Amino acid sequence: MFLDVDLSKTMRSGKREFHLHLNYASSSDRLVVLGPSGSGKSLLLQMIAGLLKPDRGYLKLAGRTLFDHTQGINLTPQQRQVAFLFQNYALFPHLSVRQNIAFSLHHGLFNPRPKMISKTVDYWLETFALEPVQHQRPHELSGGQRQRTALARALVTEPRALLLDEPFSALDPDLRIHMRKELRQLQERLAVPLILITHDVEDVQVFAEQTLCLKDGQMDLERQQLIQACSTLNPIKKPEPVTDSGF
Amino acid sequence: MDAVWVALSLSLKVAGWATALNIVLGISVGYFLARTRFFGRDVLDTLLTLPMVMPPTVLGYYLLVLMGRRSTFGAWLYDSFGINLIFTWQGAVIAATVVAFPLVFKPARAAFEAVDSELEQAARVLGVSELAIFFRVTLPLAWRGILAGVLLAFARALGEFGATLMVAGSIPGKTQTLSIAVYEAVQAGKDGTANMLVVITSIVCVVVLLTASRLAPGRVSERSR
Q1: In this predicted model, what pLDDT tens digit does every residue of A118-140 receive, in sequence order?
Q2: What is the b/e burial string over A65-87, where b = at least 16 CB atoms within 10 angstroms of the residue's CB?
Q3: Which residue of A42, B97, B102, B193 could cross-link B185, Cys pair, CB 3.0 to 4.6 Å?
Q4: Residue from B118, B119, B126 to probe the interface with A (highest A Cβ count within 10 Å)
Q5: Could A81 and B119 be called an inter-chain contact, meaning their C-beta atoms sit closer than 8 Å?
Q6: A143 shares a domain with A26
Q7: What is the pTM of this model?
Q8: Which residues of A are less than 8 Å from B127 in CB distance?
């Protein structure tokens, strides 16, 4: 079982309350969580990464218990060994592309030097065609380069799972189609399990082996059945072989 | 003439120590107030800002009462460690530190609050320890805002008069700082010494202010973002 959760969380903001309650298990390596904004999908992803503590329940990912209320287990984000791609990438603005990618490889209280030598970093720069911009700061990059940098920084850690928070929403439509394809091919090649949250049905068609539909903090059964019916009609195609640059 | 340089070096020593203390205290308190939420946080912030608005003599009187040997704290300091702070340059350091403290912790708090917490979360997921996150992400993104405050605090500590006079007095060569020496010189009718002291103080203050304005956060966003 890749992901196995039974979680409850109540969020309060002023007088408004939001309840998330979810009992779900998936054996798929490519899980897409689909839901409108305010459905609780971001909260779910944050709980998987350890950035938000659930009130009750348990959370298992790739065979490890990350959180269990009754046993008092709650691994820190540092211990969970997952990669998180933030919606706005959360690149470190004071570091170059190279330093951003090397961030997790470097221990101690100082950041990696701008000209630090690392074969791993070189490999990822090459994989994502980032060599020409490796000494630039994030604000000097294009949207696609920013996303590639964020992906490289996340994948350097050799994570057990890659969590993606609306990865394509910040890109313009043309680039979105391109990056979707690129990420799909990359996932195929690295065989890294992936959990992607989105409000865009297109993402489901490209990525989902299984889909979890959320609405108001609960599973959206109606939509879930609808999506399942659609996917049996048009099974997802394998990605086409690589033709364009990048890989 | 010698007295002028003695007063200047004493002032720099007192202001330097006060600034060093404030860097540690101001950054810690600023970070704490920016990153935690608790009941009474605003009250604490207000209390810590008081030294900025209170008359320095009133503040000096409080310190005198607190550190004097007749108070519990002062008596404890003297009995346990043999430390007496009244009428010493260390006492002047304490006075200058307290007076300048809001100038460090206020901008530090604002600078830490301006750092996007998502960047810290990203570092957390990347497996970097909390202490390393502070030194590798939070502090580098906040340091310009903090440094501007630190320089202002240095200038404030250098010019400190009221609280220092109350706590440390005016002992030439021991606790008579630049600003107190100016007052004494004018009182004694030594116009030459007074002029000299005033010019030196003005130059130091102008240099500090120029440096501070160059480091102000507003300019950062234009240049390096």
Answers
A1: 999 999 999 999 999 999 999 99
A2: ebbbbeeeeebebbebbbbbbbe
A3: B193
A4: B126
A5: no
A6: no
A7: 0.84
A8: 78, 81, 104, 157
